[in-house]
Automatic annotation (TrEMBL):
Protein name: phosphodiesterase I
GO terms for MF: metal ion binding; nucleic acid binding; phosphodiesterase I activity
GO BP annotation list: interstrand cross-link repair
Reactions mediated catalytically: Hydrolytically removes 5'-nucleotides successively from the 3'-hydroxy termini of 3'-hydroxy-terminated oligonucleotides
VRR-NUC domain sequence ranges: 442-556
Keywords for the protein's UniProt record, in alphabetical order: Hydrolase, Magnesium, Manganese, Metal-binding, Nuclease
UniProt-listed Pfam families: FAN1_HTH, FANC_SAP, VRR_NUC
Amino acid sequence: MNATPLPPRPASLDDPLYYLHNFRSALRWIEACYVDLFDDEERDFLTRFETLPEPAQALWVRMVMRKGDTFRDDRLDYAEIGTPSSAMVALIECEWVEDDPPLSLAVLWPLLTKAEIGRHLHGLLRDHGLTRGARKADMLEVLAEADLGEHSLTAWCPEIPFKVVRMTRMALCERLRLMFFGNLHQDWSEFVLADLGVRRFERVPLSPASRAFQRREDIHTYVHLHACRERLEAGEPIADILHDVPAADDNPWLENRRGKLLFLLARAREREGALEAAAGLYAQSVHPGARGRRLRMLERQACHAEALALANDAAAAPESEAERQQLDRLLPRLHRRLALAPPSVTEEPVPPRLEMTLPRTASVERAVVEHLSCESMPVYYVENALINALFGLLCWEAVFAPLAGAFFHPFQRAPADLLRPEFASRRETLFTRCLARLEVPEGEHGYRAVIRRTYHAKHGLESAFVQWEALDETLLEMALACLPAAHLRLWFERLLRDVRANRAGMPDLIQFRPEQGDYRMIEVKGPGDRLQDNQRRWLAFCARHGMPLDVCHVTWAS
């Protein structure tokens, strides 16, 4: 391209062809970023799309944005396009749409209403002992057993008053969507939501170098892994999927996705009772927790010596606090079963315990808030929202830094590597600078001023850390007045050590004492409720550092 296009921005919904303008904008951006990785099909598609009449372009994009790839032509009527038949002719001529394609019953059934099935397929229903009054799903179940094959709509229903068409370039469009978003869980509706103001995003500087994939084979690997994941969710046999899992990849991002797939396949094997096979798959996975699950499989198979050797390796370099917690439970059991001296285990401090009997309500946390809160010592139900939000506001510039491979389209609420181990290390200098502000409580560059400025300047923008609806100015000011900077630093540093695990599990409530300038946290447990492992880790961390914390156990008044 002669000039680098501006990063795509949503077209105004006042324009009837807003979706076409958005799609064109995305195509220009994809071409600028990926022209060196395009295959012949993609190059041909972009060239031919520009030469199509505008109504044909618009109709194509309308179909791309709908679910599936097979449509009735009488349901493709859009006022801004005009007569759909002429636009469709252009798409059929360039072989992007197949006219009257062969249809299985599974594809045909959703296209027809129950009345249309009764009217046009009554002979087929009668031949298989079905009546028009049967449920639509029951009809399909009975007919599916007959294995009737695939036929065109005109063969199934010769007198039906509409046609069916099928898009033939959906796989290509999925690849283009993948190149733009760097994932397949976002779609083109992001443009619409952004224009409506439903979702607003930070504007991170982008360039054609800001792209998700650097090699053509990376795109194919992602698509392949995604297809295997979909097959697993659809219930295909595990053995068939395993045969198609790609080999290990030297791209850490893709290897993490492959590790997650292997982890899910191992869990499926585990549920089937195939413990040895599950252990083997866990051994191949780099997904967090895979080694811990493998240890469980070895223990359940009574392979105690092998489990102990692996557990000792893990104890020498735990992948996370969660694994360390698991090993503290597992190692004593393995030592007992092998008649070995018990290992030394560090006892974690136990927070003070409160007992309360309260009138029954729908929310045990709200009941404690109402019981303890007063004007001079208000209590807020914050759970994970407050500490995460304060971190996100103080470190906004570090989280949204335009690092290579972090941001590659305008609709990201977080960098692509947020949950990967290298998230903090890649931004070490930036986070060090942000956390250093905690040493300066007041003044223009102090942490309180920075958090306030960010709160007002960025309010409403999507963020993986800030839930705006859970943080009003009253709560923010109370937190800034009562939470010591030293405690904020400890919480933020722990969060950065493992974002995936540590942004959850924080205490439910916080009580402020503005007159004293301090606070206490309260974890609430209702009748029959127990502490989860991530909560135990947070409670132990807070107790270890002398943070004021109670665990409140509630029973209901009879």
